[in-house]
Design a protein that fits this description.
This protein has 6 helices and 3 strands. By secondary structure, it is mainly α.
Length: 177
């Protein structure tokens, strides 16, 4: 049975998001400097602030994308319906860099709001809405279930793990300007 045919366990998705939020809250309260491990696809390493900047914006972004996808479907647009962005999206990159200038506890409030919006979205979706098909520019056709799992739930968990695994950088702290 494919993911699209299996019943969506909304409670499990929400529980995973809340568990990630709890892990992130622990990190925000005891933030330490360092760099993430290298991204497998790009080799990039981020400072903790960059992770926080991304965490603060992506849950809300993807909730908006799912809502727009569903609105297009309900308006009669044929599936798959284009959605999403790529790693090079200017708004995404700007949010990542903004994280360097903001306190993790402040950004955690945005993360929590995004998780609350995602949880509310999940609890409100009808079975057929979970199966709505979108078309991502690089990943191809994806259902709403796949979008929520990959771009919200698993992504929160991935970034919590990045913060778990921060490693000191010899150049830390950065030189004074």
């Amino acid at each position: 049975m494919s993911d699209d045919q299996r019943a969506i366990d909304v409670d499990a998705l929400v529980a995973r998001m809340l568990a990630a939020e709890s892990r992130l809250a622990d990190h925000a309260a005891a933030e330490r400097p360092g760099l993430t491990g290298a991204d497998a696809a790009t080799g990039e390493r981020w400072e903790a602030g960059q992770v926080w900047g991304h965490l603060a914006e992506f849950p809300t972004y993807w909730v908006g994308q799912v809502r727009a996808l569903l609105a297009a479907r309900h308006a009669g647009e044929p599936e798959p319906i284009p959605f999403g962005r790529t790693r090079t999206d200017p708004a995404r990159l700007a949010a990542i860099e903004r994280g360097l200038r903001n306190d993790p506890l402040t950004l955690l409030a945005d993360v929590a709001a995004g998780i609350a919006a995602a949880s509310s979205l999940c609890r409100g979706l009808a079975d057929d809405e979970w199966r709505t098909c979108g078309l991502h520019g690089t990943l191809g056709a994806m259902t709403v279930a796949s979008i929520v799992e990959r771009f919200v739930v698993a992504h929160l968990e991935e970034h919590a793990t990045q913060l778990d695994e921060l490693t000191p950088d010899d150049s830390w702290p950065p030189p004074a300007a």
